[in-house]
Amino acid sequence: MKIIVGLLFIFLSLSSIYSTAFADSVAVSSPRFPEQIQRQKLLDRQKVISLGQNDPTVSSADSLKVLMNIFYSDQFRKFSDPEAPYFMVMSKDTHLAMGVGGILLVRGWEDWNGVVEPYVFSPYNIPIPKNPARRQRLYATPANSGFFLTLLGRNTAVGDFMAHLEGAFNGYQRMGFKVRRAYIRLKGFTAGYALSTFLDAGAMPRMVDGGVYSGTVDRANILVRYQKDFKSGWSVAGGLEFPNTYIEDVSGSVEACSPYLPDLAAFGQYRWDEGFSHVRLSGLLRTLGYRDLLSQRNHNKLGWGLALSSTVKVIPDLSLYGAVVYGKGHLSYLSDMSNGAHDLVAVAGCPGVLQAPEAFSYFVGGKYNFRPELYSTVTFSQVRNYENLPADPEGYKYGLCGAANIFWEITPRLILGAEYMIGERMNFDGSHGSSNRAEAMFQLSF
Hints:
16-stranded antiparallel β-barrel; 22 strands; 3 helices; 49% strand
């Protein structure tokens, strides 16, 4: 399997070289990709409310487009993030704009061959053994519907800046409202509650399900990050992230210690095709502490991770996606393994000892646009846990997940989608289970 993934990334690299060489060999402007067409439609319909009398020599529409570039230039935008607010209030000098927007999202699905809890489809949560009373289920939820406030500005002293506050509901039977993002971006710095620097949001195609594709990194932290973008297409970033560890507690023998050092995360990236193609190498370092209650001693384990991810525009209508993640003690950063306490786990036959388990995951996929507003993605992913001497024979060994979907953007703010997903979970003792899901969604951004 590692050979297959390696061949995939060789193909992605060759595709990127070909794309760059082709772009350099012709004396025409870059092609307008489907995503650009849809984005332009959205900006053309943006509504501006001006405060006071604007400078007559400055176009409010042109100024708004400049400010919108600040909003959409974020390389950590996920497919599930809202579009810019439909109505923007602009200051008199056109250097400041503020908008309040939101997402109305309703999803419905049918599980069969085993019900997956909670509402996000994840191989980790496939039941083993199956409960005969819960072989199938029809369900719907408005989870991930929410509101946000965005402030965009340009200042001669500090440059471009953006403040963003976003919250969302997590369901209707157990209704709750939680903060999803709360950060400010200024002069290359990002501070607040934002997506981890170890995550590559640009290597995740859209999906109907409420989570992200299995095998990818999915984590938000309180952080301070600095990012530098170069005109050559290169970007580098590094940051300190307030840790949130998931360490197994073993009653009477092991207890998790409070974290006292930040996680360190960084990446180097090269972009081309006007930013719609890229390759990124990311790294993570963290300290994981626990106390051996039998010897009354504290211990620290080093956790680390490496991720290679890429998106390549083979042709304007076809994009390929891929990611490989490997490390130890990083499992809470993975979309599948974050469902349990796996950063440090017990070792069979060694009371009072925890290990940082080794894990390998990958994700591959493709997206094809039949039209700018109509597109489909097909993906496959795997997460494999190489835990040494597992204390729990029914523990998670590996998971597989495949998905195919189709989306129709009736307007750039109104999206319909349908998806089929299949997953399998294998435990260390050989027991396994699988499940299927068909789902549909309606999403309105405003």
